[in-house]
């Protein structure tokens, strides 16, 4: 990924990707060229050119070891690495997190990725600074102008957040690309899919200019459980928004649950209900297996609960489903069983109850 990928995260830090903590520099202090040609990224390229493993990439390697599809492998599948220069002039794959602006406060999230989390984070003493909104790119106009050559030549933009569909900078970049007649890039979103309108921007009209648009909807469960995990979500809004974009077949849609201890029992039912509601086609499932916070990781389940999860998944894995879906379910089981971290289960109970108390909620999870 250091040969093609440019990720901007909290406070403008340019990193190897959205998972590994491998910083290259800061976009508010350096130009794209300075960062892309810098010492840190070149050291990583040299290591990867020699097929050496960087220990900071442990998340992808753990997922792969359990048979899952990591971001690393996913990227390999989309780009032809045989044609990639080992001394690349510019990145072709951008993941820009403009800010933490978000309209949800999901349980597995935090203030750094959600402005809506700020008040809860202040009570829990986990806030970053004293303002709800954290702008990662301080001068958007300068960022775009100084990165223009790379942005105009990009093959893919991946937008996450915060929530990209309520982030104005994302719309400004799309309008800039359209104005400069550079719309061949693939647009991919990790979105909570709660909003299809923002200020005066016509989202569908903007998307029509691009060759490919893919929405990965962060839906962890349906109905009450989904609304509990992703606080401020309304399940009926998700269903209605899906109906709206069905009129636009150029928009590809998948559900992309984050698999955690909160929803691991319910992933098969979520998938099957979305099929029944005609929200997705048979292969339109994209899994994100949560690694951190560790007290939400599925590996912390006690043995007896892991066995119940195992039994439930086996009931749903059959020849009527596509092979890729059965493999996806199996990857959850393999990851869950790979390591016993049940010593953290008590911490999960404590943290979850603490948030229940703060939000005046009662958990709908029937095994707690």
Description:
The chain is of the alpha/beta class. The chain has helices at 32-36, 39-49, 58-65, 71-78, 118-124, 140-146, 148-152, 168-179, 203-207, 223-229, 235-245, 267-276, 303-316, 323-338, 345-359, and strands at 5-8, 13-15, 23-26, 93-96, 105-106, 156-159, 186-191, 212-217, 230-231, 251-255, 258-259, 288-289. It has 15 helices and twelve strands. The strands form three sheets. Strands 3-2-1-4-6-7-8-10 form an eight-stranded mixed β-sheet. Helix 12 links the parallel strand 11 (258-259) and strand 12. The longest helix is centred in the last third of the chain and has 16 residues, at 323-338.
Task: Show the helix and strand layout.
Layout: E1 5-8, E2 13-15, E3 23-26, H1 32-36, H2 39-49, H3 58-65, H4 71-78, E4 93-96, E5 105-106, H5 118-124, H6 140-146, H7 148-152, E6 156-159, H8 168-179, E7 186-191, H9 203-207, E8 212-217, H10 223-229, E9 230-231, H11 235-245, E10 251-255, E11 258-259, H12 267-276, E12 288-289, H13 303-316, H14 323-338, H15 345-359
Parallel strand pairs: 1-4, 4-6, 6-7, 7-8, 8-10, 11-12
Antiparallel strand pairs: 1-2, 2-3, 5-9
Helix content: 25-40%
- Number of helices, counting only DSSP H or I runs of 4 residues or more: 15
- Give the CA-based shape: globular
Proportion of beta-strand residues: 5-15%
Q: Encode the helix/strand succession as letters.
A: EEEHHHHEEHHHEHEHEHEHEEHEHHH
Largest sheet geometry? 8 strands, mixed
Number of strands: 12
């Amino acid at each position: 990924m250091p040969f093609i990928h440019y990720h901007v995260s909290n406070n403008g830090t340019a990193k190897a990707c959205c998972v590994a903590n491998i910083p290259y520099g800061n976009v508010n202090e350096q130009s794209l060229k300075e960062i892309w040609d810098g010492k840190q990224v070149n050291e990583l390229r040299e290591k990867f050119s020699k097929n050496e493993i960087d220990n900071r990439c442990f998340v992808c390697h753990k997922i792969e070891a359990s048979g899952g599809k990591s971001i690393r492998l996913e990227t390999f599948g989309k780009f032809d690495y045989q044609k990639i220069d080992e001394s690349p002039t510019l990145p072709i794959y951008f993941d820009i997190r403009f800010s933490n602006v978000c309209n949800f406060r999901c349980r597995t999230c935090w203030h750094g990725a959600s402005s809506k989390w700020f008040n809860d984070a202040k009570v829990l003493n986990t806030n970053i600074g004293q303002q709800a909104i954290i702008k990662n790119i301080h001068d958007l106009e300068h960022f775009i102008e100084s990165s223009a050559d790379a942005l105009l030549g990009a093959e893919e933009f991946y937008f996450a957040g915060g929530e990209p569909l309520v982030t104005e900078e994302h719309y400004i970049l799309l309008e800039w690309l359209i104005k400069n007649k550079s719309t061949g890039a693939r647009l991919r979103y990790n979105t909570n899919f709660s909003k299809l309108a923002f200020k005066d921007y016509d989202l569908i009209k903007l998307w029509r200019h691009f060759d490919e648009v893919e929405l990965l909807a962060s839906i962890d469960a349906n109905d009450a459980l989904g609304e509990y995990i992703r606080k401020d979500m309304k399940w009926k809004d998700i269903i209605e928004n899906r109906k709206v974009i069905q009129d636009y077949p150029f928009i590809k849609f998948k559900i992309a649950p984050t698999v955690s201890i909160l929803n691991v029992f319910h992933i098969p039912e979520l998938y099957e209900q979305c099929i029944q509601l005609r929200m997705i086609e048979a292969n339109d499932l994209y899994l994100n297996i949560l690694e951190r916070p560790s007290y939400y990781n599925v590996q912390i389940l006690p043995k007896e609960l892991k066995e119940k999860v195992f039994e439930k998944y086996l009931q749903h894995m059959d020849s009527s489903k596509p092979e890729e879906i059965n493999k996806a379910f199996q990857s959850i089981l393999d990851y869950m069983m790979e390591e016993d971290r049940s010593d953290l289960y008590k911490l999960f109970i404590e943290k979850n109850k603490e948030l229940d108390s703060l939000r005046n909620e009662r958990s709908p999870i029937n095994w707690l």
